[in-house]
Amino acid sequence: MTHPGDGQGGWGGQQGGWGQPQYPPTGGFPQQQSQYGGLGVFSGGPPTPPKRSRWPIIAAVVLLVLVAGGVTAFLVTRKSDDQAVTTVSTPKTTSPDPTTSAKTAAACEAHAAGWNCLKVTALAVSYDAPEAWKPYDFSGPIEGMDAKLIGITTYGDYDCGGKTYNRGNAGGVLVDKADPGATAKDIAAKLSAQYYKSGTATPAIGEPKPLTIKGTALTGVQVDSVVTTTGNDCLATKGAIKVAVFQGEKNMLVFMSNGDLEGGPSSAPAPVRDGDLQAVIDSIKPLKQG
């Protein structure tokens, strides 16, 4: 697949979602970071705080306190509003109170040898990826939407023709509640065009099918896309994208896995097996608190 940006740059500049646990209320996913309005229309990313004029720094407030016949002066200063730190569902660094609801995510185990279990605390889920797939520290845009995938892993980076490609990736995003099947199909179509746009791509987008994750309460829908390409020897000739959508109480979790199945230059890492892409989707689990 082509890196987003047609192989010219990175995945974006926001943090990748591996930290900052945001455990959901019962029956839901965490509060979303991007808001889906249906069929590719997002209402925007994280809310932007209103701009405020800079408060002048109060240079000093002198409090005169008479202590044993003497005078003690205390200097009090105030930071400007622009220096104030805004936190969103970020756990305190002090030792947690065992009576509070804030808990750390328990360790997760991969479903098979040769795989790693990866916790995406910002989405309150974990998933498994082959050991050769490595966590990526930044977010990845979905072109045509104001949405960014987080908790990304990538596999098989290679350079060809002055551009950078990779063989596979996976990641997720939280979106507003909408029709799950239409959402999955729409995102599958957008990612198919985006990831293979450096060639002449012909995607075959499937219809939504029910998806149940064994051993969990997660049920949703999945849409598969198979993409064939021509016209670029650096690009795979066949790739696959799998998009799963799970309904929460207040929003939906969208998770995708993508990989090159055939073709590409001989210098590129080995293609991905379609069964591994499905295993990534089937491994998604809500994070346990412990």
Task: Please tell me about this protein's structure.
- By secondary structure, this protein is mainly β.
- It has a domain at 35-42 and 114-286: Protein Transport Mog1p, Chain A (3-Layer(aba) Sandwich), CATH 3.40.1000.10.
- The chain is 9% helix and 36% strand.
- The chain has two helices and 18 strands.
- The chain has helices at residues 180-195, 274-282, and strands at residues 35-36, 42-44, 62-67, 70-75, 115-120, 125-130, 134-135, 140-141, 148-155, 158-160, 163-165, 168-176, 200-205, 209-212, 219-230, 236-247, 251-263, 285-286.
- Strands 7, 8, 9, 12, 13, 14, 15, 16 and 17 form a nine-stranded antiparallel β-sheet that branches. A three-stranded antiparallel β-sheet has the order 5-6-18.
- Strand 15 and strand 16 form a beta hairpin.
- The chain is globular.
- The protein starts with 34 loop residues before the first strand and ends with a strand.
List the helices and strands and how they pair.
Blueprint: E1 35-36, E2 42-44, E3 62-67, E4 70-75, E5 115-120, E6 125-130, E7 134-135, E8 140-141, E9 148-155, E10 158-160, E11 163-165, E12 168-176, H1 180-195, E13 200-205, E14 209-212, E15 219-230, E16 236-247, E17 251-263, H2 274-282, E18 285-286
Antiparallel strand pairs: 1-2, 3-4, 5-6, 6-18, 7-9, 8-9, 9-12, 10-11, 12-17, 13-15, 14-15, 15-16, 16-17
